[in-house]
């Protein structure tokens, strides 16, 4: 192949992320930008590839039930490390480092951002220098939380030994220049600005990486990043171009690079509030289970709202190639994705009929339906973002066609997605009727994602408005099925259950209206070879394989 | 003058303390959460743990007190340590280790001392924003002088027109416009500023020059608009003064009359206006820095705001407040120095 | 002295010279003050242009939406991305037509309607915020210039406001007052009040400083002492004697203030704390169109030109008004 | 007068016409003016304000162009010695620059503003020298020093390094003169060089110019509207009126046998020191054109209206770190006097001696430190702010500068009505009636009520100020240099008006002035102030006819007299610079003790600092 040769032969490669990394320790930040930047340096035992399949990195193979790496009771998983691995400083990589990584993150004072990856882990033991065993307190049908994927890479015990617990933030040097096993090492890290890297001399694969240095620029906006790759050719790779399709298409005409897209599990959805968030209610009772929503508690209304939406058009306007209309909360992987496509055709008339049926009619002729003197008016909020605002406008338009009045509201994303219990504008607090945002799940297993919709996970004043069941969906049957999923290890069975759960949230109840399965668009220069866009792991997962090619 | 300065400096300490308190409360009260950028896949319990690790659970007054101690007591110690240990000037002094093991102001985003990052950001901010300020002034002053001298001439009218247009167009428009023209269409200039670029020879200087042109020009446009207005006004005030006639009666050349006698007097208010604008340089230029990826102080503040990195926002805002108070004082002192009629006692 | 034209009768001549020694009053007959202002104003070409343009644009944004009655928020996705009518001049195949003279945006909203409606909001925000900022700035400037005791603290207060970061301030304001204002004035009205207040609360400082400087100088003028000696109360001195004499710097601040307000509003939308997303303003139209600047230059140019022309017009109008309102200049 | 008639004139102005382009079309500044200036001669150009004096002189320097003027006709012939005669009106800009400051020097009216405030005296003096004489810096400085000595500036070395504001007005004017003389010009133009100065300083400057002219033989064109100064200085006089020359002649001819009615009227309006000798009471002036008015002395009454005892006002000078008072300006020190109803007491003295402060202290516009002020039974010092406001109903003030004391942005009627509104003494239509009455009273047409101050002449403005002061029917008016800024003719009318009002309404005046001739005209009593104290106090007749204190005597000597036969010689003048009124905080001012030389005539016997 063209890219073979000695390490560092292709000079410099330049990557631009419009969000700048602030730290290179993924355990202190779970921000995507930080995790992905650090994935050039730090590596996990195994990664997900572009299809979502598990591939070994530092481990010799992925432990499974079949190969005996995972115990029958689903309570332990044993990893075997590759031989002769070296840290970039030349010291050997051992099972100790793996155990240290777990201890580091599980330290109760450290505030580890990836703690969820280590959920249920009761102990990590070093069997020998090359073997490490993770034991869970409960059976784990999906034991690939720890040490799998960009979010839980292995850090060097020697470097971080003095940085555990409360001292974690003080180790600036280590957090900015972690020693790793990945293809690159940090030369200079300027937080929130730029990282310069050089090829790791001790990288385990000969002749890789092809580039001697890597410049990782951060900051600006997606437009500028796209422009720098596709129009001016100043950069080789631009991450996550959240731009309107026509804008991206125009940039691609620049001819210096091209956009790529891939799909994962990210779904843009409408959440319909099942509780009443009216400001007339006393504080403490607003948006709580005490008061069901006066309008949206009716399934017919919810269904009508869904029917009025033309999801294909939304995709065309907002995402183009990088989106697919979907009716599912869990759009992938195939095993878990339901075949539900009912919602894809817009049916304004049907929606009108449904509303009539539900008793909402336009008695006063102002174009807005009403019932018992109450108007069919909804407050629809989302975070500030150009595409979301276009969506809001379109959906408002459709809803107005079926006689629903919509008030739009957008909130700064740092407030909207922040969990500040004092703010009334957070998405958890949901002081609105309809809310739009996107969510996904890590890796390929949707269990914990689906478990978010159990009754116990309501955000409420008692929980300081923390909680993942954003729209306050509550169904005992659903809760029971989630529990069942947690006990099931058999893949087929798990798929069945997940699909059922997905359908209960969407086409059975219409409490969540999925809109678009959002793919990822990134752009690579025409001269950059070996890029494989991966939405299941860090986008830079295979940077070691990148090389320069002739145009 | 000296006592005046010292008095004002001392008085500014309580002022600054008060300002810092107000800023602190404002930031505390403002909604927003440092966990806002953490992906939704991270469960709330983990976020809660992360918040605790940042010290968010503590009562407000303790957080404020900690910040005060860190900024006013520990950071100066760090500075002294730096001076005695590493700086070229004072390293002959015995090494001090005052700050060892003491907790500095730590950014929540980067988990590193805020001051280090600020210092790291200074060069590009000063280069770009500072140079833009200088360029703006250098362009504005002749325009102002000539507009006033040829009051209501075509030049004056055109100058007014262009500066007002320049003032009224936001940089988030001019910036991308320049990029589209000069980087995309013509391909002459880079659209992304390289902060790591080191100038060590002519070629690298040229590169630096190329990458600075656009941000500097966008910023300079605003400065030019304002300063040239002030300059024009001040010149107009002075051109009709009696001493100008005296100077002419001495047989001085018109250029000497205007450029020496009138200009010197007109510069007094303008210089103070310029001094008052200085803090803004250190404050960076949020939008322009962002458009050209200059990643100076302005961009730092913006990212910190977006990430609700309170220690960073607080410290940057406070530094800005210090500069404002300081440059207010400097403007006053400059006024006294430039105008012999003014004496502070 | 030989060439003196000698009047007919020597006695008459004497009397004439005698009278000449008396005070010479103005030769022109007195006229109404406002006539005078208008006459002076009319002489200033820039001011006339500025005034007419402002009247034009104000009328356009007030009545335009009634005449051009396409709803600015109305989507027509099938007719998106129309070009302005003039593109037909050089490109016969362009998607353009008289139904949308200035074209449509990416969601098919009519740009002319958006310009008209957006102008209404931008102008309202600009004027209100500027007016409020002027009131605050002038008040603070006058108080600190006039009352020596308050000076130090008011100026330090100014420093404080100068150093406050605007973004958290807006967010805080939205949190604290967003809900009550929304329920009182509706989502758009509430946001309007909020935005106007935030912009004006953070942009009065320059005015305050300038006014203060001028008041400090004016205070030493003899007519202020004269006013005190005839028993004028401080309040009246400020209102009747000081304020009219600082009109000129206030005018300048007003000009710059309007521009700043319109731009700040757009920057706020840009940062996501502005009006509801489907509520067009010039600033937002400009910000939204920047990404598509190459394909659809008109979408940035139209609001950009509208903002610039408005600001220019106000600037010229301010110049002219300043001259016209100053009786000293007016007399000349 | 020197005999140079056989030589050709240095400058000949022939048919000069200057136009200004204004918004209302062209305005003619001077029209068809012709006169000559001979070598070694002083030509005085007189005329009221706006008659074209400055424009003529600026035309000669070709400086009118910078003020928007244009020489539309006539020739300005200038004799350059060996280089022959040229027409300045047709010379190029570069040639003019060689002539300006070099062959023609000019002194301007306002010493306060004629110097650039931000350059040192030395820099401003050497600038012209280095330009025209190509001197090096050292040479230029040496020459500057020499010039400073020539104009008798004390400590010239130090002055060169100082800034203009650090010099007193007199010194500044001397610097301007030195600058004009620097290159030994053939012609010196002095445009009202002493108008803004104190009598004593004026006398010095006039003597200085006279001496310099004699020593260097320079021709001088001297512009003034002060006939007394003309009498002191001129060889020949040119009288201008409305942009035209109306009369020309030797100084004696003009003063003794004026031909033109304008000249006659002008001379009649000039108060001459000594005119009132022998008259116990003041009386209005006899002006041409109003001879039919009967002239009656103003007697007043012998009841005390205002009595001031031991009034002391000091301004603290703060310094040091804690801004404590380190020193005091002893502006008014132990002042005692009283004013009778319907009579006038004048305070005279040099600039800075505390006259204004005394006046303001009585009104409590500045807070006095101690003393008693009793106005018609009201103890002014004991009043609180509210009562003080009410007390001001009875005492009003007229200020020096009629332009500065009126709000430029308000219509006159409103300004006059303001005190009435303030105290709500009248309501509704009565106010209008009262204003109309006041306008009639001060002889202003009612049509002026809707005008703005800038539309009026100086005298008219001062009438408005007087009307405002009268609006509340006060008992006492403090007139702080109320006529100093006015033209002689106008000054005379305003003075007459004030005296008429006094006679009619039994007003009492505290008249503050530095003009002895005016004071002689208007006062019943006179107090001579020096360094914050009254050095001599008594009836006007006694003080003027029999001055006792050495300072009073010196002051009287300095006053120029409008009579060319009574010129003062430089030898008569003997002034010491005024010592500083600033004393450290610890300084204890001694009380003033007076000796009664005659009944009611007191002279300070303790140290006055003079
Ligand atoms: N810059 C100018 N623009 C228009 N008119 C002017 C200008 N300068 C002078 N004039 C006019 O020229 C005439 C003569 O003015 P000039 O200054 O010579 O008077 P003056 O005799 O010097 O009076 P003063 O005693 O007040 O100095 C006046 O009527 C004045 O209105
Ligand atoms: N507000 C003040 N603060 C400090 N010193 C002052 C103040 N006002 C006046 N003085 C000083 O007090 C002294 C007397 O001033 P004042 O104005 O009374 O003199 P004057 O006789 O009226 O002089 P002029 O004839 O110049 O008006 C001067 O030395 C002056 O500098
Ligand atoms: Mg003059
Ligand atoms: Mg005075």
Distance between the termini of chain D: 36 Å
Indicate the percent of residues in helices of chain D.
25-40%
What would you call the structural class of chain B?
mainly alpha
Overall number of domains of chain D: 4
Using the coordinates above, name the CATH class of the domain at 120-338 in chain B: Mainly Alpha
Family (chain D): Belongs to the ABC transporter superfamily.
Keywords (chain D): ATP-binding, Cell inner membrane, Cell membrane, Hydrolase, Membrane, Nucleotide-binding, Translocase, Transport
Domain ABC transporter (chain D): 13-267, 306-556
Membrane topology (chain D): Peripheral membrane protein
Q: Can you walk through the features of this model?
A:
The complex is a heterotetramer of chains A (551), B (345), C (332) and D (610). In chain B, 73% of the residues lie in helices and 0% in strands. Chain B is mostly helical and 345 residues long. Chain B has a domain of 219 residues: MetI-like fold, CATH 1.10.3720. The model of chain B has no long low-confidence stretch (mean pLDDT 83). With 332 residues, chain C is mainly α. Helix content of chain C is 70%, strand content 0%. The N terminus of chain C is likely disordered. Chain D has 4 domains: 186 residues, Rossmann fold (3-Layer(aba) Sandwich); 72 residues, no CATH class; 203 residues, P-loop containing nucleotide triphosphate hydrolases (Rossmann fold, 3-Layer(aba) Sandwich); 67 residues, no CATH class. Chains A and B meet through helix 4, strand 9, helix 5 and helix 11 of A and helix 2, helix 4, helix 6, helix 10 and helix 11 of B. One adenosine-5'-triphosphate (ATP) binds next to strand 1, strand 2 and helix 1 of chain D.
What structural keywords apply?
heterotetramer; A: 551 residues; alpha+beta; C: 332 residues; mainly alpha; MetI-like fold; 13 helices; 70% helix; binds adenosine-5'-triphosphate; binds magnesium ion; Glutathione transport system permease protein GsiC (chain B); transmembrane helix (chain B); transmembrane (chain B); membrane (chain B); MetI-like (chain B)
């Amino acid at each position: 192949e063209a890219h073979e040769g000695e390490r560092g032969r292709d000079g410099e490669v330049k990557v631009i992320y419009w969000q700048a990394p602030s730290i290179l320790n993924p355990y202190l930040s779970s921000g995507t930008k930080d995790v992905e930047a650090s994935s050039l340096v730090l590596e996990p035992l195994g990664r997900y590839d572009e299809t979502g399949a598990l591939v070994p990195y530092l481990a010799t193979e992925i432990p499974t039930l079949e190969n005996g790496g995972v115990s029958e009771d689903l309570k332990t998983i044993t990893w075997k490390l590759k031989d002769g691995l070296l840290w970039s400083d030349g010291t050997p990589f051992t099972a100790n480092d793996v155990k240290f990584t777990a201890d580091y993150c599980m330290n109760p004072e450290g505030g580890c951002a990836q703690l969820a990856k280590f959920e249920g882990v009761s102990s990590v033991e070093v069997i020998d220098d090359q073997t490490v065993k993770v034991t869970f307190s409960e059976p784990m049908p999906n034991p690939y939380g720890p040490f799998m994927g960009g979010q839980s890479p292995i850090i060097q015990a020697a470097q971080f030994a003095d940085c555990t617990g409360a001292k974690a933030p003080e180790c600036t040097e280590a957090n900015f220049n972690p020693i790793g096993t990945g293809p690159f090492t940090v030369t200079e890290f300027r937080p929130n600005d730029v990282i310069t890297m050089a090829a790791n001399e001790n990288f385990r694969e000969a002749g890789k990486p092809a580039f001697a240095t890597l410049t990782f620029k951060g900051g600006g906006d997606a437009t500028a990043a796209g422009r720098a790759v596709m129009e001016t050719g100043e950069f080789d790779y631009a991450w996550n171009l959240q731009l309107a399709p026509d804008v991206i298409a125009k940039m691609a005409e620049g001819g210096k690079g091209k956009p790529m897209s891939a799909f994962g599990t990210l779904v843009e959805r409408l959440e319909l509030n099942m509780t009443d968030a009216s400001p007339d209610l006393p504080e403490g009772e607003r948006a709580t289970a005490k008061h069901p929503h006066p309008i949206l508690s009716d399934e017919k209304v919810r269904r009508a709202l869904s029917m009025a939406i033309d999801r294909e058009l939304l995709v065309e306007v907002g995402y183009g190639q990088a989106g697919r209309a979907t009716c599912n909360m869990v759009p992938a992987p195939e095993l878990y994705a339901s075949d539900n496509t009912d919602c894809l055709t817009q049916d304004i008339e049907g929606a009108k009929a449904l509303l009539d049926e539900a008793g909402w009619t336009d008695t006063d002729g102002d174009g807005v339906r009403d019932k018992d003197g109450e108007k069919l008016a909804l407050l629809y909020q989302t975070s500030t973002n150009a595409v979301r605002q276009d969506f809001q406008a379109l959906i408002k338009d459709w809803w107005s066609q079926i006689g629903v009045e919509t008030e739009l509201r957008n909130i700064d994303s740092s407030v909207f997605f922040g969990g500040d219990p004092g703010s009334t504008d957070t998405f958890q607090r949901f002081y609105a009727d309809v809310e739009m945002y996107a969510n996904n799940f890590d890796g390929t297993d949707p269990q914990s994602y689906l478990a978010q919709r159990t009754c116990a996970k309501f955000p409420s004043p008692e929980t300081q408005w923390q909680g993942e069941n954003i729209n306050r969906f509550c169904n005992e049957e659903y809760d029971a099925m989630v529990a069942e999923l947690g006990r099931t290890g058999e893949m087929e069975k798990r798929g069945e259950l997940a699909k059922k759960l997905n359908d209960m949230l969407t086409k059975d109840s219409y409490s969540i209206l999925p809109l678009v399965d959002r793919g990822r668009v990134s752009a690579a220069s025409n001269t950059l070879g070996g890029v494989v866009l991966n939405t299941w792991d860090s986008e830079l997962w295979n940077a070691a394989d990148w090389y320069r090619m002739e145009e | 003058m000296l006592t005046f300065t010292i008095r004002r400096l001392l008085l500014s300490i309580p002022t600054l303390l008060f300002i810092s308190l107000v800023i602190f409360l404002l930031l505390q009260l403002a909604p927003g959460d440092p966990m806002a950028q953490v992906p939704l896949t991270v469960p709330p319990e983990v976020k809660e743990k992360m918040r605790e690790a940042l010290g968010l659970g503590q009562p407000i007054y303790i957080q404020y007190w900690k910040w005060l101690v860190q900024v006013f007591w520990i950071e100066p110690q760090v500075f002294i340590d730096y001076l005695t240990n590493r700086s070229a000037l004072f390293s002959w002094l015995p090494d001090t280790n005052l700050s060892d093991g003491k907790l500095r102001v730590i950014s929540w985003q980067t988990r590193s001392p805020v001051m280090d990052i600020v210092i790291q950001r200074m060069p590009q901010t000063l280069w770009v924003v500072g140079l833009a300020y200088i360029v703006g002034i250098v362009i504005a002053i002749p325009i102002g002088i000539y507009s006033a001298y040829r009051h209501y001439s075509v030049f004056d009218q055109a100058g007014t027109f262009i500066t007002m247009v320049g003032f009224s167009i936001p940089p988030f428009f001019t910036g991308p416009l320049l990029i589209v023209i000069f980087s995309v269409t013509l391909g002459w200039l880079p659209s992304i500023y390289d902060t790591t670029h080191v100038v060590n020879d002519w070629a690298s200087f040229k590169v630096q020059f190329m990458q600075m042109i656009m941000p500097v020009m966008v910023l300079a446009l605003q400065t030019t608009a304002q300063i040239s207005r002030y300059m024009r006004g001040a010149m107009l005030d002075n051109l009709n003064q009696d001493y100008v006639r005296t100077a002419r009666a001495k047989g001085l050349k018109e250029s000497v009359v205007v450029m020496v006698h009138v200009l010197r007097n007109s510069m007094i208010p303008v210089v103070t206006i310029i001094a008052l604008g200085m803090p803004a340089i250190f404050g960076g230029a949020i939008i322009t820095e962002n458009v050209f990826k200059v990643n100076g102080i302005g961009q730092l503040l913006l990212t910190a705001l977006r990430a609700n990195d309170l220690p960073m926002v607080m410290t940057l805002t406070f530094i800005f407040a210090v500069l404002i108070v300081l440059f207010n004082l400097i403007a006053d002192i400059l006024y006294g120095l430039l105008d012999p009629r003014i004496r502070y006692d | 002295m030989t060439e003196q034209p000698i009047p007919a009768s020597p006695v008459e001549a004497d009397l004439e010279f005698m009278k000449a020694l008396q005070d010479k009053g103005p030769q022109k007959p007195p006229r109404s003050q406002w006539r005078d202002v208008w006459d002076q104003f009319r002489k200033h070409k820039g001011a006339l242009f500025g005034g007419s343009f402002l009247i034009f644009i104000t009328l356009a944004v007030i009545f335009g939406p009634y005449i051009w009655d396409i709803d600015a928020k109305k989507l027509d996705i099938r007719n998106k991305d129309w070009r302005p009518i003039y593109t037909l001049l050089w490109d016969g195949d362009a998607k353009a037509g008289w139904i949308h003279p200035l074209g449509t945006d990416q969601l098919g909203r009519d740009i002319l309607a958006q310009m008209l409606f957006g102008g209404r909001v931008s102008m309202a925000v600009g004027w209100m915020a500027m007016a409020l900022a002027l009131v605050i700035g002038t008040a603070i400037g006058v108080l600190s210039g006039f009352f020596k005791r308050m000076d130090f603290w008011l100026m330090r207060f100014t420093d404080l406001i100068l150093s406050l970061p605007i973004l958290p301030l807006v967010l805080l304001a939205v949190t604290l007052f967003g809900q009550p204002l929304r329920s009182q004035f509706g989502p758009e009205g509430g946001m309007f009040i909020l935005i106007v207040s935030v912009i004006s609360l953070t942009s009065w400082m320059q005015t305050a400083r300038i006014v203060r400087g001028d008041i400090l100088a004016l205070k030493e003028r003899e007519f202020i002492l004269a006013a005190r000696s005839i028993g004028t109360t401080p309040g009246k001195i400020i209102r009747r004697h000081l304020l009219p004499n600082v009109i000129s710097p206030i005018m300048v601040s007003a000009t710059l203030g309007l521009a700043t307000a319109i731009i700040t509003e757009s920057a706020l939308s840009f940062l996501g704390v502005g009006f509801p997303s489907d509520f067009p303003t010039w600033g937002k139209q400009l910000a939204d169109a920047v990404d598509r600047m190459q394909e659809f230059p008109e979408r940035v140019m139209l609001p950009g030109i509208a903002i610039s022309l408005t600001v220019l017009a106000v600037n010229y109008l301010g110049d002219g008004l300043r001259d016209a309102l100053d009786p000293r200049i007016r007399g000349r | 007068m020197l005999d140079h008639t056989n030589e050709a004139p240095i400058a000949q102005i022939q048919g000069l016409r200057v136009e200004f382009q204004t918004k209302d079309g062209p305005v003619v500044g001077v029209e068809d003016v012709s006169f000559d200036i001979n070598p070694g001669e002083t030509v005085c150009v007189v005329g009221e304000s706006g008659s074209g004096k400055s424009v003529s002189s600026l035309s000669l320097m070709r400086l009118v162009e910078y003020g928007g003027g244009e020489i539309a006709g006539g020739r300005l012939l200038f004799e350059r010695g060996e280089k022959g005669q040229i027409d300045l009106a047709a010379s190029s800009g570069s040639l003019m620059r060689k002539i300006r400051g070099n062959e023609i020097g000019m002194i301007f009216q306002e010493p306060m503003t004629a110097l650039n405030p931000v350059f040192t005296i030395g820099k401003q003096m050497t600038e012209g020298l280095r330009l025209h004489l190509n001197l090096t810096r050292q040479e230029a400085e040496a020459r500057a020093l020499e010039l400073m000595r020539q104009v008798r500036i004390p400590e010239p070395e130090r002055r060169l390094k100082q800034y203009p504001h650090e010099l007193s007005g007199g010194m500044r004017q001397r610097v301007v003169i030195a600058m004009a003389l620097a290159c030994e010009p053939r012609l010196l133009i002095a445009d009202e060089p002493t108008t803004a100065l104190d009598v004593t300083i004026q006398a010095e400057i006039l003597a200085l110019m006279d001496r310099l002219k004699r020593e260097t033989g320079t021709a001088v064109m001297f512009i003034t509207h002060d006939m007394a100064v003309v009498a002191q200085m001129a060889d020949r006089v040119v009288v201008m009126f409305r942009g035209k020359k109306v009369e020309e002649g030797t100084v004696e001819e003009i003063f003794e046998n004026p031909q033109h009615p304008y000249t006659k009227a002008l001379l009649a309006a000039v108060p001459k020191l000594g005119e009132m000798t022998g008259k116990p009471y003041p009386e209005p002036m006899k002006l041409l054109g109003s001879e039919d008015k009967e002239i009656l002395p103003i007697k007043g009454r012998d009841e005390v209206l205002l009595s001031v005892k031991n009034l002391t006002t000091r301004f603290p000078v703060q310094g040091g770190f804690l801004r404590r008072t380190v020193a005091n300006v002893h502006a008014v020190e132990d002042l005692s006097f009283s004013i009778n109803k319907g009579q006038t007491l004048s305070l005279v003295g040099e600039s800075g001696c505390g006259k204004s402060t005394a006046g303001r202290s009585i009104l409590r516009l500045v807070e006095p430190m101690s003393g008693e002020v009793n106005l018609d039974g009201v103890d002014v010092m004991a009043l609180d702010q509210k009562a003080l406001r009410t007390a001001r109903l009875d005492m009003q003030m007229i200020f020096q500068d009629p332009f500065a004391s009126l709000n430029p942005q308000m219509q006159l009627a409103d300004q006059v009505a303001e005190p009435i509104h303030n105290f709500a003494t009248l309501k509704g239509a009565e106010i209008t009636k009262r204003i109309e009455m006041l306008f009639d009273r001060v002889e202003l047409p009612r049509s002026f009520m809707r005008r703005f101050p800038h539309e009026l002449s100086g005298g008219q403005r001062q009438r408005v100020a007087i009307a405002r002061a009268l609006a509340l029917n006060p008992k006492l008016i403090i007139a702080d240099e109320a006529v100093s800024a006015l033209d002689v003719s106008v000054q005379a009318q305003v003075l007459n008006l004030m005296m008429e009002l006094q006679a009619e309404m039994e007003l009492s005046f505290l008249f503050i002035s530095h003009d002895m001739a005016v004071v002689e005209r208007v006062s019943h009593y006179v107090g001579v102030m020096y360094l914050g104290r009254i050095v001599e106090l008594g009836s006007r007749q006694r003080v003027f006819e029999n001055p006792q204190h050495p300072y009073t005597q010196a002051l009287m000597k300095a006053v120029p007299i409008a009579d060319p036969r009574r010129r003062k010689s430089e030898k008569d003048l003997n002034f010491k610079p005024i010592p500083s009124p600033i004393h450290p905080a610890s300084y204890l001012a001694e009380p003033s003790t007076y000796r009664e030389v005659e009944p009611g005539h007191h002279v300070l016997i303790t140290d006055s600092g003079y």
